[in-house]
Amino acid sequence: MAPHRPIDYGDATPEVRAVFDDIKRRRKIEDVNNFWKYLAHDPASLQRTWQSVKEIMAPGALDPLTKEMIYVAVSVTNNCRYCMASHTAAARAKGMTEAQYAELIAVVGLANETNRLANAYDPPVDAKFLAE
Amino acid sequence: MAPHRPIDYGDATPEVRAVFDDIKRRRKIEDVNNFWKYLAHDPASLQRTWQSVKEIMAPGALDPLTKEMIYVAVSVTNNCRYCMASHTAAARAKGMTEAQYAELIAVVGLANETNRLANAYDPPVDAKFLAE
Amino acid sequence: MAPHRPIDYGDATPEVRAVFDDIKRRRKIEDVNNFWKYLAHDPASLQRTWQSVKEIMAPGALDPLTKEMIYVAVSVTNNCRYCMASHTAAARAKGMTEAQYAELIAVVGLANETNRLANAYDPPVDAKFLAE
Amino acid sequence: MAPHRPIDYGDATPEVRAVFDDIKRRRKIEDVNNFWKYLAHDPASLQRTWQSVKEIMAPGALDPLTKEMIYVAVSVTNNCRYCMASHTAAARAKGMTEAQYAELIAVVGLANETNRLANAYDPPVDAKFLAE
Amino acid sequence: MAPHRPIDYGDATPEVRAVFDDIKRRRKIEDVNNFWKYLAHDPASLQRTWQSVKEIMAPGALDPLTKEMIYVAVSVTNNCRYCMASHTAAARAKGMTEAQYAELIAVVGLANETNRLANAYDPPVDAKFLAE
Amino acid sequence: MAPHRPIDYGDATPEVRAVFDDIKRRRKIEDVNNFWKYLAHDPASLQRTWQSVKEIMAPGALDPLTKEMIYVAVSVTNNCRYCMASHTAAARAKGMTEAQYAELIAVVGLANETNRLANAYDPPVDAKFLAE
């Protein structure tokens, strides 16, 4: 058996199909992304992860595009290739322009640089950041 | 000599003072944060880093608050305590509400979780994310 | 010269062959994995690393399968593709079931999420965790 | 308002109290850890995170102690101080001996070392690890 | 449009060409590396990054080879495949021998290992490292 | 019992004392650093780690100062506070000047930034970096 292979709709259990159906309905897409087809090897994780994604990525105090860009920022920092590809695409689908993408990546680069400058020079947190 | 100590305005070279003055003028603050006082040990880095921060964090295709939240997302992922404290404060100063902060952190947590699920199950990037 | 190429048994020095022979004998395999063939460019590292692997991964207070799963957890967190592949295979060879693998990855995902929630909300370590 | 402060039971909303009560009942403890008191600023995250912890950390194909040790492995790799403290304590409460702890950390160290050796020498994943 | 494609000299704006020309002149090369052709989608980042690279990587208190090896050390730790390839090549071009490379990687591996041992055992920083 | 406490020479087993003695002799110091006193809880790790440090950090194709600076680069990237403190001190003891330290940190910051730019724009590795 291959270590990891996608589970397509036709081969899925009813439990997995129910999640796939919900993803397709919500996202108005024909088929789910590979991420979900691979995660389907663990139906409990599939269900829980999709539930979390639905709740957390829904519009709330932050709009969906801002949330996708935050997702991209984390994925770039962690160098998760699949996640960068899928969430950059999702951000574009939600209206991210090339200029916005360029600025997003510039901020991510800058933050990763200054995080290390702060680690090294180790300034104490300013009192005002801690004050009541 | 202590490994790292702040360089205060009174002890700074004219080159360093010029950067401190620019930070204070731009940010309309009385004194610069500890980060800059420690980075002042390396005047070239101080100048270059402040120049980058000015350019990258300025309003552009993304608004300043969105940029600060992206900065926080990276700093939380990297566990840079100083950076979390200072950029969370900056985001609050730019209008981030507690509800927005809570959603930001929830997205960061989710992205760090699914980044590892993607690493482990290793789905190939869907063709549509690569297509022309 | 290519930056990195495997050193096969036939091209190896006696010093490298001795390590390869020990790996093959211990693991009852015909040939060593690519990791060792590439590391053979640095015979001192090859020898030291194999020595550490032998000592640390041997059965002790923890059984070998638990150790392999911990290895996988770190490799998934660091996104080391080779290490995930080789240590997941090793864990399967030592009896890891698909259900165990699924739970392992779920814990890794959860830990990476809550690590960031803890970084962001920055709770002080509870006194009881520090107490004598 | 201070950036982060604990929300104690007495100050909590009924929604938050319900989660605190469930944590205390399940874990047979008098009071919840600081992590939950800080996360209570985001009741939705509090509820979702506790739900995930309950499901994922329950005994299943892996026993609870193995799961805690995997949690520690990730937290050590990410240098999350709170998480190391709380999950090491949890693992000890579930029976982890000092000898087991020592071996766990030794494996984590080794995996972090060889992850970088593999990154640098970049061996291709052996065909057998990919084979059907 | 493909998410990311190189911008070649012939398709570049005068602003981008000016950076490309400076890179080629400084490095005495016929064409710039792919990194710069992709970064050219964001001309401001292209210009700023090249400016930083020129300043930081120039000979100073540290010689250029030492700087390249430090760059490799970071890239291996972060598992940035492109950066490892390009900066290892640059270090070799500046005279890094295979023996030096092997020792560099061995130190990177060791540091990543002991970083985690220190995280886990959490020794307080010795007074002498903090003393004036 | 406290989770982690130092094991001082007076309380150490003969096996641990032998390592402590070797560290003191080699480094010409009165007492070992806290790192070793905490690691002494796992005598096998203590011995193996000290053996690796002795071999890897010894002068070879790279001089000891270069090795210490590489160690610092990794520790800053990983944000290991103890390791930054101890290896920065060690580098200073081996002659690192403040100007060299400043350049080291600037390179580390730059590499962490460009690592993310490379992750995001994902340029293919140039053929010349792969060529034979």
Describe the 3D structure.
Six copies of one chain form a homohexamer. Helix content of chain A is 69%, strand content 0%. The first copy, chain A, has 132 residues and is mainly α. The longest helix of chain A is centred in the C-terminal third of the chain and has 24 residues, at 98-121. The radius of gyration of chain A is 19 Å and the shape is elongated. Chain A starts with 13 loop residues before the first helix and ends with a helix. The model of chain A has no long low-confidence stretch (mean pLDDT 95). Chains in contact: A-B, A-C, A-D, A-E, A-F, B-C, B-D, B-E, B-F, C-D, C-E, C-F, D-E, D-F, E-F. At the A-B interface, helix 2, helix 3, helix 4, helix 5 and helix 6 of A face helix 2, helix 3, helix 4, helix 5 and helix 6 of B.
SSE layout:
The structure is a homohexamer of 132-residue chains.
Chain A lengths: L13 H14 L6 H6 L3 H15 L6 H15 L2 H13 L4 H24 L5 H4 L2
Largest interface: A-B, 64 and 64 residues
Helix content of chain A: 55-70%
What can be said about the biggest beta sheet of chain A? none
Strand tally of chain A: 0
Order of helices and strands of chain A: HHHHHHH
Query: Mean pLDDT of chain A, nearest integer?
Result: 95
| Structural class designation of chain A | mainly alpha
Pick out the low-confidence regions of chain A: none
Strand content range of chain A: under 5%
Radius of gyration of chain A: 19 Å
Which of globular, elongated, flat, extended, rod-shaped describes the shape of chain A? elongated
Head-to-tail CA distance between termini of chain A: 58 Å
